[in-house]
Design goal:
Length: 355
């Protein structure tokens, strides 16, 4: 498989697949480990016919403008009788490089860890794959793999993934390529030239997603929300922003939720006594806690259906509905300049692939 297969803009969606903390009756909770705290968007992919060496990987990681790298196996294979581009990945490492809808899905990562084939939705349709069934996969050897489901992958041109054990069994090229994530301020053409100088003439570098600097005024704002209680974190972030802070991007709530608790993975209490998915101090909760989308009764600091709308309400009162005063609103939520920078950077990552 050549890196030319990955040309074109990325269009992956975002949004966690389910609540990781205990929701009220009627809202399904996700099982298994929580989504990673820090997501990375694959901006470039560099491929070398003989594989990326450890020295090349180290050199790329040291380049100015590179914030993360991830080597992956790869190859062009035949799945169910049709050609497909397959990546071999380490599930714990690759999870951070997928959209929130994928990284938050316990089922996807459980199935991948069990050696099942995971594909994009488009590939599942093209290859006629159905969950629960097994299909022939032909690479260096022929194996029959169970299909574990379809999801968004954020690597344009990649049709499917398997874990590294399956990759070795199939004979995919080891360290076929390296995914590279850069901050929005980086010059991708410049970075591409630098990576090319590292991997040499035989290698290829492809821009997976072109983007400009994402500012507060460019982050996606939800204006319409479905009726009823949101069933997952993505819908809850959007609904809370739309209802309790019109003009604020849901990506800000998503960033705060990840930084504070990993979307409910660590509800505290913190060393300071903060609680819940949005880490409210009890005294602050007494002032700002509301019964948002949760069941009737007193607002529950531990319930994301109350905590996230309450955070939106508090942020809005501090000016989060206006891009000009968003930073000061985030500072009011947590009095630290590094925290403001981290929230805005994470919101910017989410905004690269808005859903």
């Amino acid at each position: 498989m050549t890196s030319a297969a990955f040309a074109g803009p990325a269009t992956a969606g975002t949004g966690p697949a389910g609540f990781t903390s205990t929701p009220p009756p009627g809202v399904a909770a996700a099982a298994g480990p929580a989504a990673p705290r820090r997501p990375y968007v694959p901006d470039l992919i560099a491929a070398v016919p003989g594989g990326i060496t450890s020295s090349q990987l180290a050199a790329i990681s040291r380049l100015r403008g590179v914030q993360a790298v991830l080597p992956v196996d790869g190859g062009k294979v035949t799945v169910n009788g049709q050609s497909a581009n397959l990546l071999g990945v380490s599930p714990p490492a690759f999870r951070s490089w997928t959209p929130l809808s994928t990284s938050g899905s316990a089922a996807i990562w459980s199935n991948l860890g069990q050696g099942k084939l995971i594909s994009t939705r488009a590939a599942a349709r093209r290859l006629h794959l159905a969950a629960g069934k097994s299909y022939p996969v032909s690479a260096a050897v022929l194996a029959r793999l169970p299909f574990g489901g379809a999801t968004a992958l954020s690597v344009t041109g990649a049709d499917a993934i398997v874990n590294l054990s399956r990759s070795a069994q199939l004979g995919l090229a080891q360290n076929f390529a390296v995914l590279i994530s850069a901050p929005p301020s980086a010059s991708l053409p410049t970075l591409m030239a630098q990576v090319k100088s590292v991997i040499g003439k035989s290698g290829q570098v492809v821009n997976l997603v072109s983007y400009g600097l994402v500012t507060a005024s460019q982050t996606p704002v939800a204006t319409t929300i479905p009726a009823g209680a949101p069933a997952n974190y993505l819908n809850l972030f959007k609904a809370s922003a739309a209802r309790y802070c019109p003009g604020m991007s849901w990506t800000v709530l998503a960033a705060i939720g990840q930084i504070e608790s990993g979307d409910g993975a660590n509800n505290g209490p913190s060393s300071a006594g903060a609680l819940g998915p949005m880490q409210f101090m009890p005294a602050t909760w007494a002032e700002w806690g509301i019964n948002g989308f949760g069941p009737p009764g007193p607002p529950d600091i531990m319930n994301p259906l109350d905590a996230i709308p309450s955070a939106a309400r508090m942020l809005c009162a501090a000016g989060a509905g206006n891009p000009a005063t968003l930073s000061q609103a985030i500072f009011a939520y947590n009095h630290a300049t590094w925290y403001v920078a981290e929230v805005l950077a994470l919101a910017s990552e989410y905004a690269k692939n808005p859903a």
